[in-house]
Each structure stands twice: as structure tokens, then as C-alpha cells.
Design brief:
Helices cover 10% and strands 62% of the residues. It is mainly β and 239 residues long. The protein is elongated, with a radius of gyration of 36 Å. The chain is built from 2 helices and 12 strands, in the order H-H-E-E-E-E-E-E-E-E-E-E-E-E. The chain has helices at residues 2-21, 39-43; strands at 53-69, 77-79, 81-95, 98-117, 120-141, 144-155, 160-165, 168-173, 182-196, 199-210, 215-217, 220-237. The chain has one domain (52-237): Porin (Beta Barrel), CATH 2.40.160. The protein has an 8-stranded antiparallel barrel.
């Protein structure tokens, strides 16, 4: 029994020595091209990196209703005149659902007053033009958006007054001292419908209300209130 026990001890010693000296076998990693890729993760983009900036052009058309004080003997009334704008806007998406917006627009507004003069009907039509600077916030709900902000309108160009008394019409240039800059708030809503990649067609409604008089003369102190249908195109990018 001595020799078998000795032989077993030698064999056990050799086995433990081999185990101690053994190195772990390196498992060759699967080549990257053969690794499985989750399609959902592959198509996921980091919103913090993409589609943060909004640029576009917009035009609008609608009506203007005069605010302020209208001189007269009690028969004076305000009528709706024409308004239109054209310009460009720029936005920065601070959140997935919101963006800080700014815009520069050329605006043309018409204020219309009706009253009597020496027993005859008289209509005064004031044609005003501005360069408007807007700043506000736009909130997105899928394709629908709502927005609000402030605007400052700088008087530009020659303003004219068309006066009609009875059947006699006259047109004159409004005195520079009678024309003023405007400032007010705006509120709008619309739809930005994606049509191709990062391009969207925008359409909606915007209402502007000024709290500064744009015209002061002959007893009238007038400011503009406008409601317009808007349409345009916008491009969203990460730049």
C-alpha cells in the first residue's frame, strides 16, 4: 500500500501545481460588425445635440381695429382696416416642448375712422408702416403651438392720411411729429406641419394689441389692434 499512496500523493501534487500555474483562457470577443444592435437604440438621437434652432419666413394678412381716443361730436365710430406683415423669425429650443422666439417684420396697418363734418359724412384712413421686433415664447404640443410675447414697432417710411368728406377725397402726408413708435403684446396659435426632413409648413392666427399711441393729431390719439392669419415655412437644425 505504500507505493500506491506515494503515487497518489505525487499525482495530487502535480494536479494542484498545474491548476495554480494555469492562466485563464482569453475568450475572443465577437467582431464589432457581428454584434447585435438594438434598432431602437440605433435610431435614438440625443435631443440635446439636435434640432435646437428654428429659422423661418412668415407672411400674414388681416385687419386692424383702432384703439385710443377718437375726436368727434358723438357720432364717431371705428372701422376695421387692412393689415399685413412679412418677415423672418428665429428660435432656440430650450426644452422639448418650448422655444424662445424672436422675429423682425415689416408691418403695414390701416386705421379707419368714420364721423361727420359740417353735416357731411367723413372718413379718415391712416396708413401706417413699421419695422417690428418681436420676442416671446412658443410652446409645442406635437404639431400644435401657442405663443405669446411683446413687440416694439419702429415708425418707418411716409405715413399718409386719406380723407373723404361727402364725395370729395384728399390725400396728405402725416406730419412727422404726429407719428410715434408702438409697443404691445401678442398672442398666437397655429400648426407646424412637417413636410420633409426638418422643414415644416406653419399656419395660424396672431393677435397684436398695442398700449402706446401710434398717431396723435387733430384730437385723435390712436393705437393699433390687429388680428391676422399667418403662413410660412420653418427649418429646424442643430447647426
Amino acid at each position: 500500500m505504500k507505493y500506491p499512496l506515494t503515487l497518489c500523493a505525487i499525482l495530487l501534487t502535480m494536479i494542484f501545481t498545474a491548476i495554480a500555474d494555469a492562466k485563464p483562457v482569453d475568450i475572443e470577443k465577437e467582431p464589432a460588425e457581428h454584434q447585435q444592435i438594438d434598432p431602437e437604440k440605433e435610431n435614438t438621437t440625443d435631443d440635446t445635440l439636435g434640432r435646437k434652432y428654428i429659422m423661418g419666413i412668415t407672411g400674414s394678412f388681416g385687419g386692424t381695429y383702432p384703439g385710443g381716443t377718437v375726436a368727434g361730436v358723438g357720432d364717431q365710430k371705428r372701422s376695421i382696416g387692412m393689415a399685413y406683415t412679412a418677415g423672418a423669425h428665429f428660435g432656440f429650443k430650450t426644452w422639448d416642448t418650448g422655444a424662445i422666439m424672436s422675429a423682425v417684420e415689416y408691418a403695414r396697418k390701416t386705421l379707419v375712422l368714420e364721423r361727420s363734418y359740417m353735416g357731411l359724412p367723413m372718413t379718415n384712413t391712416f396708413e401706417l408702416s413699421f419695422v417690428e421686433i418681436l420676442a416671446g415664447y412658443r410652446h409645442f404640443m406635437d404639431m400644435i403651438y401657442i405663443e405669446t410675447g411683446i413687440f416694439y414697432a419702429v415708425k418707418t417710411g411716409d405715413w399718409t392720411e386719406h380723407k373723404k368728406v361727402g364725395k370729395i377725397s384728399t390725400r396728405s402726408t402725416i406730419d412727422e411729429r404726429s407719428g410715434k413708435n408702438e409697443m404691445g403684446i401678442y398672442l398666437g396659435a397655429g400648426v407646424a406641419y412637417p413636410v420633409w426632413n426638418n422643414i415644416a409648413i406653419e399656419t395660424g392666427l396672431r393677435v397684436d394689441a398695442s398700449f402706446l399711441n401710434a398717431y396723435a393729431g387733430n384730437g385723435d390719439k390712436l393705437r393699433s389692434n390687429t388680428a391676422m392669419i399667418r403662413a410660412g415655412v420653418s427649418y429646424t437644425t442643430a447647426l
